[in-house]
Write a structure and sequence with these properties.
alpha+beta, Chitinase A, domain 3, 7-stranded antiparallel beta sheet, 6-stranded antiparallel beta sheet, 8 helices, elongated
């Protein structure tokens, strides 16, 4: 029997001083009862900066486990370290399989179900079978992303875009079948769209999607940018898309993969090649070209 197994059994013995009404379980927190089913070979306990892959099946005690909810997915530890899972995460290592019985109200249902609609019981006890399948530390994630960035730049930036979209609190919309995502807010002064030949004035701020570092800002440059929409080499393709989608007086957030930003060249000394960016853009003013039909 290895040292971790002996230590874990000793900890469970200590925390189990108070008897549980459920046979074979230990009382580990206020009305939270835990039973160790399988001891894994992991050594490290998950911290709030880690992510974990969990297989979870939940149901009523003495009924079919999984009848209420089942999933197998990754979570940020800080997002699920609450309620019944708080004492569980303090004791779990990779490979550990546990059965936990706790009040229905003690489980972080919304986070576990990723906001999906499930029939959550209001009262009573819920039994969960939990298997901690994997753990990824920030250092492991960085190393994985560095390898991906070197060997698959497109895969790397699409992963950055997907992660940003998932974390964002904005109701982002995909632009067609592209990897551009956007959200527009504000009242339009003019509901007609911009057409080629119109003079437009925009203010904007561009940031690296990877770390949020600002690299382009009209306020920092001293004034908004005015140009004739459709003229070549005035702005990047993504800003042309933004102007196409905005109406005068509106502001939007635009997630732009490198294809719509600075491509495989980047900005030397500022932005690496194949780097996605996020722009906030405001269409300040539109001066219509004479003889051009509005749309």
């Amino acid at each position: 029997m290895n040292i971790r197994v002996i230590f874990l059994l000793a900890v469970l013995a200590l925390v189990g001083c108070e008897r549980s009404p459920y046979a074979g379980y230990k009382l580990v927190d206020d009305d939270v009862h835990m039973r160790l089913l399988v001891i894994g070979d992991g050594e490290a306990l998950p911290t709030d900066s880690d992510s974990v892959v969990v297989r979870l099946r939940m149901g009523r005690p003495m009924e079919q486990v999984g009848a209420i909810f089942s999933t197998e997915r990754a979570y940020l530890v800080k997002d699920i370290r609450s309620g019944a899972l708080r004492p569980v995460l303090r004791r779990s290592h990779v490979g550990d399989s546990l059965s936990v019985v706790a009040p229905a109200a003690a489980w972080p249902w919304s986070t576990l179900a990723n906001n999906a609609a499930i029939d959550v019981p209001d009262t009573g006890m819920v039994q969960a079978e939990i298997l901690l399948q994997g753990l990824r530390t920030p250092a492991m994630v960085r190393a994985e992303m560095d390898r991906l960035r070197q060997h698959d730049p497109l895969g790397y930036e699409l992963r950055l875009v997907a992660a940003w979209v998932e974390r964002s609190k904005l109701p982002l919309v995909q632009w067609g079948t592209s990897d551009v995502y956007y959200h527009i807010a504000g009242q339009a002064v003019d509901t007609n769209g911009v057409v080629v030949g119109d003079e437009v004035t925009i203010s904007y701020k561009g940031s690296r999607l990877e770390d949020g570092q600002v690299f382009d800002d009209t306020r920092r440059n001293g004034a908004p940018l005015t140009f004739i929409y459709g003229d070549r080499d005035q702005v990047i393709n993504g800003l042309e898309v933004a102007i196409q989608l905005l109406r005068e007086g509106q502001e939007g957030t635009f997630i732009l993969p490198s294809l719509y930003a600075f491509g495989t060249k980047g900005i030397p000394g500022v932005l690496e090649p194949d780097m996605p960016v996020v722009y906030t853009v405001r269409l300040e003013k539109v001066v219509r070209a004479k003889g051009v039909q509005l749309r």
